[in-house]
Amino acid sequence: MKTNNFKFTTIAQLRTESERLGIDIPLDEDVSVLKRKINVNGKTLQNRIVFQPMEGCDGNADGSLGEHTVRRYEKFAGSGAALIWFEAVAVVNEGRANPRQLLINPSNMDAFKAAAELIKDTGLKKNGFEPVVIMQLTHSGRYAKPDGQPLPVIAYNSPLLEKDNPVPKECIITDAQLEALEDSFGEAAKLAQACGFDGVDLKACHRYLVSELLSAYKRPGRYGGAFENRTRFLRNIIQSAKAKTDDGFIVATRLNVYDGFAYPYGFGVKEGGGTQMDLSEAYKLADQLFQESGVSLINVTLGNPYVNPHVNRPSDNCGYETGEHPLGGVERAIKAAGALQKKLPHMSIVCSALSYLRQFSVNAAAGAINAGMAKLAGFGRMTFAYPDFAKDLFEKGQIDAGKCCIACGNCSKLMRAGQISGCVIRDKEYAKIFKEKVQR
User: Fold this and answer.
1) pLDDT above 70: residue 3
2) Of 125, 316, 366, 419, which residue is the least packed, with the fewest Cβ within 10 Å?
3) Mean pLDDT of the 370-376 span
4) Is 164 exposed, middle or buried (0-12, 13-18, 19+ CB in 10 A)?
């Protein structure tokens, strides 16, 4: 379905169009719920706004933060958001998605210590409180490019993703290698705590290695086939992180509850039902993580940004026919988070895919929380475009439509082109790079 550009100037217009399309997005004009404090794993968040882990591809060769990385986090720190979900940090060099992806190890800890201090000190100075900071830990799996060239590490061969260019079978990670990698995640969590971070996220989304294992239905051995095997790696790295850190340190996960690929190549889909969503295993996994390891914070997401980005990043023009209005993508993401939150009310669920709604994203965030569909609202692309939106919301009661993300996707185009990433529309520095390196 081809769509017009986002054209709504009032909530009434947005509601009318949603109703016409049969789409149900919760929209509350009273956004005061976003100011309410909440306790997560013994830590008090001063409000319900979460800055999602957005990679800038601007780290140094040794994995430490580069000049532009520090620039971004200084902006994020002063935003007024209670939770800064720090971007993906690789746990081993071969797991980096690009040569500029952050990587944590004992030799570069000072840079991460400085980052944690900067975020907390800036937040305290500008907003009167220190934001909680969670580091996302990752292995990029089939999308690994540690030296700039593809060096995939896959859980299994996927015809849907590889098509006529199958990844060599020697790139399939062995059970022994997975077992060794479990300790690497735990060690990285230990380093993150030593650097002053409040917690870690064991990244299990967007078809990176941990996420891919969840759909390894046809993989033989201890990490494939049955549910217990497919979820073993995620459960084990969480336990490893818990074992190597102190009580009170948050261990969370950003979890793909739905891949959008038909069985047997996608998690969260109904067997024999094409791409029909089935969250039964997501419920089971989330509950198991809570029962086994005390995980009570899950950041819900969907899809694969490399293959079906409309599933988790609704936009007016994603470059292919989606068969749905972008508002349908927003609805799907909120309802997926809501299904988990309602099923597991003792957990704190973060909802996503709000940025497409521009100035009304905060109304959807408030609506989702008031409806019991999430306890926290995550913003990704919006943070690149408008890092002060939370501060404006809390101080002025609204956000500026002229500063919002317009879901153009140019930040992703910068990343795909091997450049540092940021908002091309709102930041002149990235606009210049885009013009010189992408539009040339």
Assistant:
1) no
2) 125
3) 98
4) exposed
**pLDDT of amino acid 4:** 61
Which run of H or E residues covers position 49? Answer: strand 49-51
By three-state DSSP, how is residue 140 classified? Answer: coil
Q: What CATH number is associated with residue 80?
A: 3.20.20.70
In the predicted structure, residue 66 carries a pLDDT above the cut 50? yes
**Angstrom distance (rounded) from CA 208 to CA 145:** 12
What is the torsion angle, in degrees rounded to the nearest 10, for the CA atoms of residue 36, residue 39, residue 40 and residue 43?
110
Residue type, 385: A
Q: How confident is the model at residue 5 (pLDDT cuts 50, 70, 90)?
A: confident
Average pLDDT over all residues of the chain: 96
Interval 90-104 mean pLDDT: 98
Closest CA to 342 of 375, 381, 373: 373
- The Cα–Cα gap between 206 and 162 comes to 16
Same domain assignment for residues 365 and 438: no
For 423, the domain range is 408-440
CB 167 within 8 A of CB 157: yes
Residues 6+ apart with CB under 8 A from 300: 254, 255, 257, 333, 336, 337, 340, 349, 350, 351, 352, 374
Distance CA 216, CA 226 (A): 9
Percent over 90 (pLDDT), the chain: 97
Question: How many structural domains does the chain have?
Answer: 2
Do residues 223 and 202 both lie within one domain? yes
Q: Does 53 reside within a domain? A: yes
- Report pLDDT for 307: 96
Residue 298: strand pairing partners: 253, 349
